[in-house]
Amino acid sequence: MMKKLLALLIFATTIVNAQYTIKGTMTPPDKGDWVILYKIEGAKQKFVANTNIQIDTVIISGEKQALGKFSFELPNTTKPGAYRATYRNTGAGFVDFFFNKENVEFVFNPKFPDQSAVVFTSSRENKLYSQYLQAYNNVQKKIDAAQATFLESQGEDKEAKKSYKKHLKELEDVQESYETKSEGMLVHSFIKASQRHNASNPHDNLQEYLSETVDNFFEFVDFKSETLYNSSFLIDKINDFVFYLNFSEDKQLQQKLIRQSVIKVMDQLPSDKLKTAVVNYLISTLTDKRNGPAVDWMFSEYYDKLPQASQDAEFKKEKLDILQATVGRIAPDFSWDEAGQEVKLSRLDDGKKYLLVFWSTGCPHCTKEVPELYKFMLNHKDVSVISFGIENEDAIPTWNEFIKDLPEWHNAMGTHPEYKFDNETVKKYNLLGTPSYFVLDRNKRIIAMPEHAEDVEKYFGGSH
User: Fold this and answer.
1) N or C: where does the chain have the smaller number of CB atoms within 10 Å of the terminal CB?
2) Is domain 18-122 in CATH 2.60.40, yes or no?
3) How confident is the model at residue 85 (pLDDT cuts 50, 70, 90)?
4) Please, which pLDDT band fits residue 464 given cuts at 50, 70 and 90?
């Protein structure tokens, strides 16, 4: 009897202390030496653990190859859901996976961070979902090819129509098969939601095809699903709809498409919790894209109408501060000295338009582009140019010498005792690098933000 009780106690203790392992292998290793594990909850990431990357060496075909390996030990109490292993601060430096009370192992190349390039070597859930995506996408490509051929033939190619319907049936079989295989699994919700809308017959009109694709983009997405909510799935799907499916090179049309797509998305969302997560995400993304008009609209139309408990004054201030210097805004004011007199941007009245150039003598691109731009702008006398040098204090003599070759311009300069980019004016303009260009109208409203000197030349060389 005592032996049975002891064995039962040992078994029970083993269950309580059971752990699951998450293992990743990078081939080759990334530059960093750390990995952070997050659980995805809505549009946010909740910290779980962190670890270091261990470098290992293997012999492949007689040659040494470095591998980066990392692992996490998760307790038995770890909640199932979508997780993210992040190994880089910027860009797509992460691997998303599902955890559902099983060990997870995967191999990936950080130079190709596409999720489809991740190979799961352990985890029934992740293996099945990866297999599903591959099988589904392979057939969907055939359907898309048949649809494209049918459109090109203006509906005359009967073989393309036959191929379309054949592969559509094949796709339905793939979907049904994997929904059956995934019954009772975490990935079942994702397999159901990942399928795409396809018309029962191919379209012979491109506009009709595009309209049906847009109208039915969320056909299989259950916005009430907590499982989908607590993953990146819904946000990724919404991101694709707003920023990729509804895209135009025409800036005015793009603003219109953004509003239309956001309205369609928001009309689908059933809860304040999901609305808050989506609104915050869209505002953050539009802010990163420096789309001031769209952000203003998002705040007035959606954010300010959220429940008071869901609003954050600091969040709003942070985003609007970033957008101080974007198209549609009055350029942040600053002053400088010219021949002993204070000059203010807001008071300048010597041009029909103004070109603001932020540059630095420590920037090789700047010292090459600025003199060339100076020569070009001599042909545009109705444009007043303000050059703003961002300099370390020890570079001021160099700047003074350089601007002797820019006599027709207003030449301002800003510095900071510790870090030149912490200069107050520079921070107001939220510069991402130098040189940076802003075109202002007569009232100092920002009307364009050319990326490069050649873009400035195209702007003023055109009909603007």
Assistant:
1) N
2) yes
3) very high
4) low
What is the overall mean pLDDT for the chain?
93
Residue 17 has pLDDT above 60, yes or no: no
Q: Which residues of 235-269 are buried (b: 16+ CB within 10 A; e: fewer)?
A: bebbbebbbeebeeeeeeebeebbbebbebbbeeb
| DSSP string covering 268-320 | H---HHHHHHHHHHHHHHHHHTT-HHHHHHHHHHTGGGS-GGG--HHHHHHHH
Cβ neighbours of 369 (radius 10 Å):
20
For 343-370, write each residue's pLDDT tens digit: 999 999 999 999 999 999 999 999 999 9
Closest to 103 (Cα-Cα) out of 131, 124, 133: 124
Q: Tokens 């993210």 map to which residue? A: 84
Q: What is the mean pLDDT of residues 27-43?
A: 92
State the pLDDT at residue 11: 42
Closest to 218 measured CA to CA, from 247, 194, 200 = 194
Residues 6+ apart with CB under 8 A from 337: 343
Cis omega before residue 435 (within 30°)?
yes
In 3-state terms, what secondary structure has residue 31? Answer: coil
Q: What is the pLDDT of residues 392-411, one digit of tens each?
A: 999 999 999 999 999 999 99
Separation CA 325–CA 322 (nearest Å): 7
Which two structure tokens, joined as six digits, stand for 336?
A: 């400088």
Domain 335-461 classification at class level:
alpha beta
Strands 383-390 and 446-448: unpaired
Among 2-11, 212-221, 316-325, 417-426, the range scoring the smallest mean pLDDT is 2-11
Q: Is residue 435 within 8 Å of residue 453, measured between CB atoms?
A: yes
Instruction: Give the dihedral sign, CA 47/53/54/57.
Output: positive
**Pairing label, strands 353-359, 436-440:** antiparallel
Q: Residues of CATH 2.60.40 domain(s) within the chain? A: 18-122
Q: Where in the chain is the domain with CATH 3.40.30.10?
A: 335-461
Q: How far apart are CA 178 and CA 188, in angstroms?
A: 8
